[in-house]
Amino acid sequence: MIDQAIFQKPVLVSMKDLDVTTVKLLIQRAEAFKQGLHLELTTPLYAANLFFENSTRTHTSFEVAERRLGLSVVQFDPQTSSVKKGESLYDTCLTLAAVGVNLLVIRHWQDAYYKMLINQPSLPVALINAGDGSGEHPSQSLLDMMTISENFGDFSGLKVAIVGDLNHSRVARSNMEILHKLGAQIFFSGPAYWYTPEFAPYGTYLPIDELVEQVDVMMMLRVQHERHQSAADFDAAAYHRQYGLTVERAARMHPDAIIMHPGPINRDVELASELVESKRSRFVSQMQNGVFMRMAMIESVLRAQDLGCLV
Amino acid sequence: MIDQAIFQKPVLVSMKDLDVTTVKLLIQRAEAFKQGLHLELTTPLYAANLFFENSTRTHTSFEVAERRLGLSVVQFDPQTSSVKKGESLYDTCLTLAAVGVNLLVIRHWQDAYYKMLINQPSLPVALINAGDGSGEHPSQSLLDMMTISENFGDFSGLKVAIVGDLNHSRVARSNMEILHKLGAQIFFSGPAYWYTPEFAPYGTYLPIDELVEQVDVMMMLRVQHERHQSAADFDAAAYHRQYGLTVERAARMHPDAIIMHPGPINRDVELASELVESKRSRFVSQMQNGVFMRMAMIESVLRAQDLGCLV
Amino acid sequence: MIDQAIFQKPVLVSMKDLDVTTVKLLIQRAEAFKQGLHLELTTPLYAANLFFENSTRTHTSFEVAERRLGLSVVQFDPQTSSVKKGESLYDTCLTLAAVGVNLLVIRHWQDAYYKMLINQPSLPVALINAGDGSGEHPSQSLLDMMTISENFGDFSGLKVAIVGDLNHSRVARSNMEILHKLGAQIFFSGPAYWYTPEFAPYGTYLPIDELVEQVDVMMMLRVQHERHQSAADFDAAAYHRQYGLTVERAARMHPDAIIMHPGPINRDVELASELVESKRSRFVSQMQNGVFMRMAMIESVLRAQDLGCLV
Questions:
Q1: Helical H runs in A153-282?
Q2: Which of B161, C228, C286, C300 has its CA 20 to 30 A from that of A89?
Q3: pLDDT tens per residue, range B98-118
Q4: At what angle do helices B138-152 and B170-182 cross, to 10 degrees?
Q5: Residue C12: helix, strand or coil by DSSP?
Q6: pLDDT tens per residue across span A134-193
Q7: Of A44, A79, A122, the CB nearest to B284
Q8: Taking Cα atoms as reference points, which of B136, B127, B217 lies closest to residue B175?
Q9: Chain A partners of C124 at a C-beta cutoff of 8 Å?
C-alpha cells in the first residue's frame, strides 16, 4: 500500500515539489494499478474537472481514472458556468468545495493559477494541476517517467532529448525538472530561438541531426500554434525538414531508442505521420499509462486529505 | 418520513405555490439529509439538468443532490442540442421524457417558461424550476430560508433586508414572497430606481446606512451586469460606496446579524471582498445547505410523481 | 439470447451491411429490452459519445441506453477537446481507446467518416455510427423499423411514403435501403428537385395528395435548414401547404395508417403541430423505442468485440 505520508498536503501542482523517492513510489503504484490493483471507496467521493483550455487526452484520462477509483464525476464546463458572469477561479472552487466536491483537477491558461488556491483553509479539497499556462504539466511528466521507466528501468545516465516548441511547453519544463533530479542527461533541440536561457542549466542544445543517433529517448513536442503570435507564417513542411523527426532521422536512432510525444500530434510537422504508431513510438503507451498514473496521483492526494476512504 | 402528499403534482416552480407548512417541512427534511439521512432508490431513475443560462452553484448543486439520491444524471447542453436546430423547449422536454428521463431541472431565460410544461399529460416527468428569467428562483429561496432558520429558529418578526439589483432579481422575488408569508419584516435597499412598485406591498425602502444597524439579515444581491443595457457606464467603486455592504457598514450590524448572498459575488461591488468569508457571512453555509435542500425538493417531486422508489 | 455471431466485427455503421435476418433479430432483442430484459456487466465498460453535430434525441437516447446496460459514460465535447487544436478524428479515437473507452458512438458532419476508423488494429473499440453527414443514420432507421413492426407485424407489401427533404436526409437513405430489403413498397414525395436520381431505384415519386390515401406509413422528414444554401428565402407556410402533412391531408389517411417523424420537428412546416401527438402519430413511440433499439445495437457490437461481459 502507498504510504499515507507520501504527501503532506492534498495537493499535486508542480514537479518541483516532488523528490526522486516520491516519483518512484508513484510509478510503482501506477504499475500496480496497471496490473489490476483495485481499491474501494468506503464513502462516496465527488470529483470535478475544470478545464479552462481544450483537452482530450488529459481530460478523459483523469475522468476514467476517477471513475476507476469509484469517484463520481460532476460535470463542469467553464463556458456555461458562472465564470461567464465574472466569477473568479477562487470563488468557483469555493463553490464546488461547498457543494461537496472532494477533488478538483484544474487546467487553466494562467501560469501558477494554483497559488491562489492552496493553503486556503476554506478550500477543504484535494487539488491536482492538469496544466497551467506555459508553466507545468505534472501528470504528463509523471506518465512520461512511468513510460521511460518501463523501457529502461533506471534513469541514471539515460540520454533524453526534448525537441521542439520548448518556449511554450509546460511538458518541457516539468520533464527537464524531474529528469534532472532522476539523473538523466538532457539535450534540447528545435528552433534555437525557443531555447531560452531558462533551459541552459538543464542541458545543452544540439541540432536534431547530431542528437538523433546518440539519445535513448526522442521526446517530440507539439508546435503550439494557438500560443504563437503569427501562426499564419508557419511553414509546416519546412519545420518538419529542419526540426522534425522524419522517417529518415528515425531510421538512424539507436535500436532500443524510443519516440515519445505528449499529444495532440501535428502529424508531419514535429513527427512524421508514419512514425506515430511505429514500433519505436510510445505514443499509445503514454496514453494508456496516463490513466494508471493519474489513479496513483488521485489516490495520493485523497490519502493526504485523510479521507480514509480508499481500501 | 416526508408526507407523500406534500405535493399534489410533481412540480416545484414558484414560491407562490408553497404555504408556510410546506416550507417548514422542506427545511426539516433538508436538515435530516444534512444530518446524514440516506435514501435508496428501488428502481433506476434518470435526471437531466437543462441550463439555458450560465450557472455554477445551482447546476452543480442540483447534480450533486441528484447523485446523492442515487439518480443517474444524463448530460444535456443546449449549445450542442437540437435547440440549435430550432427545437422548442416543449419538444426538448417531450424528447427527454420519451427516452426515460424522470426528473427535469430547468433554468431558462424566459419568465415563467414552465407554464407551457406543466399539466401536460404527455410529459410524465417531475419538474423543478432552477430559475426563470427575472421571475423566480425557488431552490435558492428555500436554501436561504433553511439558512435563516438555522440561525434564528423562527421567522416571526425577523427583520430582513434585501439589497441591490432588485429589478432583475428572481432571488428577491422568491424571497420576499415567502418571507412575507413566514411573518418576517422585509426592507429593501439599493438604487432607488430598482425599487419598482411591485416591491412596495412587501416592504419599505431605506438607504443602506439606516438599515444596517436594525436588521437581522443583510441579503445582498448580485448586480446582474448581463441583464443591464449599459454595463459599460457602471462605476463599481461608486456603487460599493453608496449601496454596497462595506467593511465599515458591516461593523455597525447587530452582533448576531448575518450576511447572505446568493452568489456569484461581484467582490467589492455589492459586498466587500473581506466580508465574503467573515464570521457574519453565511455565503458558504448557503451553498452547503443548497445541496440538502435540493435533495428535499427532488424527493418531494419524485414522491408526488408516485414513483414509489425512494425508501 | 442474441447470437454472439450476429456481427463479425464490433461495428455498426451502415444499413447496407445489415441483412433482413439481422434487422429482425435486432428488433426482437429491442422488444425484449422493452419488456424489461436486464443484463449485467461482469467488468466495467466505458462509452464515449462523440457528437460533432447538434443532437438531443440521438445523443441522450444513446446515453440512456449505455447507462441502462451498465456502461460508464465518459464526457466528450468536441468544442472543448483537442479537436480545437487540430487533432484528427482518428487521433481522437486512438486517444479514447488508449485511455480505456470500449464503445465509441459518433455523429460527424463528414459522409462515411467511419471508413478511416474501421479495420484499424490500433483501435480496439466498438463503433456505432450515430449519423454521418448526408450519409446514413442506422440507429434511427432501426428504431423506425421497430416502430413499424409493432404496428404492422410484417413489412411485406407495406406501403411507406418518405416525404420531404430527401436530398439532405440520412434517414431517407438508411430507411429506403432497409425497407427495400424488407419487402416494403416505397414512395417518395416533397419538392421534386430533392428527388434526385439516387432515389429512383427504390421507389416512385408522387405528389403528397396522391399518396396520402394509399400508404400505411407517412414518414415525414425534417427540412434541414442548416444544410441549405439559402435558408432566408424559405417560405414555411408555402412549404406546409404544398408538401407538408396538414390536418386536412391526415384526415384522408387510411384508418390504420400512421405518421412518423425522426425529429426534431419543424412544427407547421413538414408536419402540422396538432398532429405531433395525435392518435396516428408515432413520434413519441419512436423516441421511446430508440432507447431499446440502441441497447440492442450496443449489446451486439460489444458481443462482437468479444468482451464477454454481458450476462
A1: 170-182, 208-211, 236-243, 247-251
A2: B161
A3: 999 999 999 999 999 999 999
A4: 50
A5: strand
A6: 899 999 999 999 999 999 999 999 999 999 999 889 999 999 999 999 999 999 999 999
A7: A122
A8: B136
A9: none
**Integer Cα distance of C117 and C93 in angstroms:** 8
Numbers of helices and strands, H then E, in chain C? 9, 10
Chain B: touching chains (3 or more CB pairs < 8 Å): A, C
Using CB atoms and an 8 Å cut-off, which of residues 242-281 of chain A contact chain B? none
Q: Cβ contact (<8 Å) for C94 and A284?
A: yes
* Half-sphere exposure in the Cβ direction for B141 (13 Å, CA): 30
**Helix, strand or coil, per DSSP, at residue C223:** coil
Q: How far apart are CA C79 and CA C93, in angstroms?
A: 15
Q: Which of the listed CATH numbers 3.40.50.1370, 3.50.50.60, 3.40.50.720, 3.30.200.210 matches domain C138-281?
A: 3.40.50.1370
Q: Report the candidate in A248, A253, A262 with the shortest Cα–Cα distance to residue A293.
A: A262
What's the Cα-to-Cα distance from A183 to each of A155, A280, B251, rounded to whole Å?
6, 23, 58
Cross-chain CB nearest to A86 (options B51, B266, B284)? B266
Distance of CA C298 to the CA centre of its chain: 14
Q: Is C75 annotated as a binding residue?
A: no
Question: Which of the other chains make 3 or more beta carbon contacts under 8 angstroms with chain A?
Answer: B, C
Burial of C178 (0-12, 13-18, 19+ CB in 10 A): buried
CA atoms within 13 A on the CB side of A128: 32
Cβ contact A59–C81 (<8 Å): yes
Nearest to B239 by CA among B226, B251, B221, B254: B221
- Asked if A124 reaches chain B (Cβ–Cβ under 8 Å), the answer is no
Task: Cite the DSSP H helix spans in chain A.
Answer: 20-34, 57-68, 89-98, 138-152, 170-182, 208-211, 236-243, 247-251, 283-304
**C290 vs B contacts (CB less than 8 Å):** 98-99
Q: Which fold has domain A138-282?
A: Rossmann fold (3.40.50)
Domain ranges of chain B: 11-136+288-304, 138-282
**Rounded to whole angstroms, how far apart are CA atoms C52 and C113?**
11
Q: Hey, what's the cell of C97?
A: 481507446
Q: Per-residue pLDDT for A206 more than 90?
A: yes
Q: Where are the beta strands (DSSP E) in B226-271?
A: 258-260
What pLDDT digit, counting tens, does each position of A264-294 carry? 999 999 999 999 999 999 999 999 999 999 9
Q: Is residue C305's pLDDT more than 90? A: no
Number of Cβ within 10 Å of residue B290's Cβ equals 31
Domains A11-136+288-304 and A138-282 share a fold: yes
CATH code of domain B11-136+288-304: 3.40.50.1370
Alpha carbon separation from C103 to A286, C98, C297 (Å, rounded): 21, 12, 11
Residue C284, helix vs strand vs coil: helix
Q: Which residue from B42, B47, C228, B129 is spatially nearest to A75, judged by alpha carbons? A: B47
Q: Which residue do the cell numbers 440502441 mark?
A: C294
Please count the residues of chain A.
Answer: 311
Those chains having 3 or more beta-carbon pairs within 8 angstroms of chain C are A, B
ipTM at complex level: 0.94
Cell 420519451 found at:
B98
Residues 6 or more apart from B98 whose CB is under 8 A from it? C284, C287, C288, C290
Closest alpha carbon within chain B to A99? B288
Residue C308: predicted pLDDT: 56
Model confidence band, residue B1 (pLDDT cutoffs 50, 70, 90): very low
Largest CA distance in chain A: 56
- ∠ CA B191-B193-B195, nearest 5°, is 85
B84, C290: Cβ pair inside 8 Å? Answer: no
Residue of A103, A115, A105 whose CA lies nearest to A137: A105
Distance from CA of B118 to the nearest CA of C (A): 16
